[in-house]
């Protein structure tokens, strides 16, 4: 009898153990359909691009709220996001992305502020088979030579900037010099600009690249002056902008017209010497005319002590909206193959109007803006004033992943 009771106890114990294992396995298999949806956001929350990280993450939070009517849920599934600081260092970006993928088990990655950081993380998306929505990094190679099928980009790329920049100044007989940081962001931007400008008949007479972390650009600017171009087209990002030195060296007084992309508000405050400059803008809060942007401006001011959304805020918002719209199409499945099928060719409304993920390279086609910098009463920096919208079709960049 004791032996029978002992045997019965062992059988019951094995049944409980088997049931528990079966339950756990089922839960794991169903996690992509029923559990909390987790999104890992990589951003420069410290370092040289701290302001970009702040803008992007604010926009991402607002985008989730906009796309889910404030619930941060889709059909009962909660959406959570985890922000990790890349410190604008590639090795840190890889560490943080790995932590998000392995420890936090996120379903999506978003980021990052730096193209170098982003390029370091791109292979992880393929390794872990997770969708990586790139925002705001712009290097062409992200959706070009380093592309893999898990990468989708809501950020515009360097070629889109270049097409917009070229449209503002390039034409037959015009001589243009260029100036950019000596990194992938700078080289991709200038390569794309040169291609677009030469198609319009302009000649690139000099290309100058400087230390991305530098603060003294005197020798670089002097070489540009010596080249005697009609225009100086500048590609730059970060707090160490060259505008003050360009002004101090009286580049414009020497008959060289400056052209560039209008930066974020903090950098616009350093561009007072460039009033009258014609160039392009990725975003300024009163350039788009649509309901999504109206919501963004109002909600941002309400939440953040009257502050206006800045250059990269709508990009963060667009990234969040794209994820929610993709999940709606897959009926909440986070299976990457289903998401890729849903996102290729997908169009979605953003603060910049309609964006579309191009099927061939997953680059979002989007509106950019031809602008002129002007003084505005009550504003302590030159304001980008709209000349005309540059349509998604007009600014579509070359496909570079083949």
TrEMBL record:
The keyword Protein biosynthesis does not apply. Residues 1-22 form the signal peptide. Gene3D superfamilies: 3.40.50.2300. PROSITE patterns: PROKAR_LIPOPROTEIN. The keyword Signal applies. Belongs to the leucine-binding protein family. PANTHER family: LEUCINE-SPECIFIC-BINDING PROTEIN, PERIPLASMIC BINDING PROTEIN OF ABC TRANSPORTER FOR NATURAL AMINO ACIDS. This is ABC transporter permease.
